[in-house]
Design goal:
It is a single chain. The protein is α/β, with parallel strands linked by helices. It is 34% helix and 25% strand. Strand 4 and strand 5 form a beta hairpin. The longest helix has 16 residues. Bound molecules: adenosine-5'-diphosphate and magnesium ion (2 copies). The site of adenosine-5'-diphosphate has 10 residues, from helix 1.
Amino acid sequence: TPVLECRQICKSFGGVPVLNNVDFILEKGEIHALVGQNGAGKSTLMKIINGVYNRDSGDILIEGEEQVYKSAQEARKAGISMVFQDFSLVPTLTVAQNIFLARELSGGRVVLDDRRMEEITQKLLDSIGIDISIHPRENVENLSVGSKQLVEIAKALSTDSKILIFDEPTASLSQAEISSLFSVIQNLKKKGISIIYISHYLKDIFKLCDSVTVLRDGVNVLSQPISETSLEKVIDAMVGKKVGNRIS
Ligand code: ADP
Ligand code: MG
Ligand code: MG
């Protein structure tokens, strides 16, 4: 059973169709790239999977179970988290306080003193193999963009996420931060966490990902293991040329 299955997802905004019967399968423990030109519907599909938008029709299954969640909080409880650049963190709180805030919001009551929260946070940060040091007691507003993103990842893990969604995560990261992010993503995969990775950088995708799905004008036009496709095939699917023996 795939960890996530989207069946025939449809979504319109103001009568304009943005997703048209999209099927999407995420296998457990894979890093699955989602690509497509600007406006193809990538973020909309992820926001539906993440509970931020309601779908007009179609089904979402997690580990074979149909999901009816209606908010990001409910999706988080079902095991899905989206890693935002930094705007879901509260800048004036510490790293540890932000992580425990997420836990509380996802339903776990937490009554712990700061020192205990900081210890647990440090363990969580260590467990994702971060090579940059982030102090649990640091205020989030003092961190670099890359470090904030790593805190976001730790926050997602603190609520036992099975599926993590990264939407264009390398924008505004330094080269060193990008390398660090990629090694963290590889570590998450080793832990059995399944990842959806949206990016315009196809070369990164061919290095990092196991599978790729191409959306074009709200339609899934290609879903394949990376090992069975090529850069050229992906680009052709994005712009609408022949893909294999299927005209799309
Ligand atoms: P991508 O992430 O692939 O660039 P999006 O999912 O952001 O694409 O957008 C797909 C289409 O849906 C675009 O035409 C965009 O303008 C439209 N769209 C996205 N969100 C909304 C919204 N909240 N209201 C109206 N239109 C939207
Ligand atoms: Mg866009
Ligand atoms: Mg987008």
